[in-house]
Amino acid sequence: MNPAATGPRPRVPAEVLAAFGRPPGRALMLGHVHPDGDVLGTLLALGMALEDAGWAVLYGGPHPVPESLAFLPGAERYRRLEQVDGRFDLAVLTDCPDPGRTEGLIDGARRAAPVIVNVDHHPDNHRYGSVNWVDPTAAATGEMVYALIVALDLPVKPGIATNLFTAIHMDTGSFRYSNVTPATFRIAADLVAAGAEPAFVSTQLYERRTPDALAELGRVLARVRVSEDGRIAWLALPAGFVREAFVEAEDLVNYPRSIGTVKVAALLREQGTGSVKVSLRAKGAVDVNRIAARFGGGGHANAAGCVLGGTLEAAEAQVLAAIRQALPR
User: Fold this and answer.
1) pTM of this structure
2) How many Å apart are CA 211 and CA 85, to the nearest integer?
């Protein structure tokens, strides 16, 4: 019995357990573009647990680990992959609802591995794996991966616990989002008992700014705009306005969301390639997943995103119009 397994957890389907119940071989932990704490924490945790069971694991994706998440145990082993080389017995993707976010690496994974396991909690997941475990009732994919490790009777060592605690912490907006349940806190408590240190994780995520970063944050926040009725706040950033490393280290969309009257917040980032990346956050009055879906994106009811073609000004007008249309009268 795993000593960390004390509280209720998501139920792991039999086909998922069967995928990992085969004799140890080679496993690919495949991430999506611009990996965040949700995907890195879950991939690293599951891979490390499999290694304890005798698996050889390769970690990687289309983009490298951002400096802000380099503290995650095992992050130094996560590689930027241009293609999938070699043969694998298993390929795993976590917290990745759209296989397109692998920038084509999913195709190489399908050729390299007979089994693709897709573990996610996004309701709009494309169910692209040969084995799909999609549970929208889970507040974070980290909850599901924790349940899987426990069900496989693998030890939750301190490094694994730190990765999963970080994944859950970030996927729930520091336990602030409405999808958080009692089970979320029970699992977090189990992870702390297994060696995760909440103070360490919070310090690494939020208290490593440089003086220059504070000045940069001030310039960014000066661009926040609020609608006349106070229900919408947004932040539009032209290409090159701030460093990419700064954006990766700051959860910028939550600043406009923090305004008391705001129901929906948006961050629009011009990519410099004729496209605009949009992040949407809500407080329960609007399902921003539906807004994102209108533009080919997706996510959750309170947190979603999409990419629009065209100029920043055009994207801003389109997104604001869609938000206004979605707000209750």
Assistant:
1) 0.88
2) 42
How much is the pLDDT for 7?
A: 53
| Contacts of the segment 103-110: beta carbons below 8 A, 24+ positions apart | 103/33, 103/62, 105/30, 105/61, 105/62, 105/81, 106/30, 108/83, 108/84, 109/28, 109/30, 109/84
Q: State the pLDDT at residue 284.
A: 81
Q: Which domains does the chain have, with CATH numbers?
A: 14-205 (3.90.1640.10), 212-326 (3.10.310.30)
User: What is the rounded CA–CA span in Å between residue 124 and residue 145?
Assistant: 19
pLDDT of 40 > 60? The answer is: yes
pLDDT above 90 as % of the chain = 81
Alpha helices, DSSP H, located in 178-281: 182-193, 198-206, 211-221, 244-249, 254-257
Whole-angstrom distance, CA of residue 296 vs CA of residue 313: 19
Quick: pLDDT tens for 258-308: 999 999 999 999 998 899 999 999 988 899 999 999 999 988 888 899 999
The C-alpha angle 150, 151, 152, rounded to 5 degrees, equals 90
Q: Give the tens place of pLDDT for each residue, 77-107.
A: 999 999 999 999 999 999 999 999 999 999 9
Kind plus residue range of the DSSP H or E element containing 118 = strand 116-120
Instruction: Give the sheet arrangement for strand 26-30, strand by strand.
Output: 78-80, 56-61, 26-30, 90-94, 116-120, 131-134
Q: What is the mean pLDDT of the chain?
A: 93
- The CA-based diameter of the chain, rounded to the nearest angstrom, is 61
Q: Which two tokens stand for residue 325?
A: 């249309």
CA 130 to chain centre: 22
Q: How far is CA 215 from the centre of its chain?
A: 27
Cα 38 to Cα 44, 234, 298, 300, 309: the distances in Å are 10, 24, 16, 14, 26
**β-bridge mates for residue 281, sequence order:** 265, 303
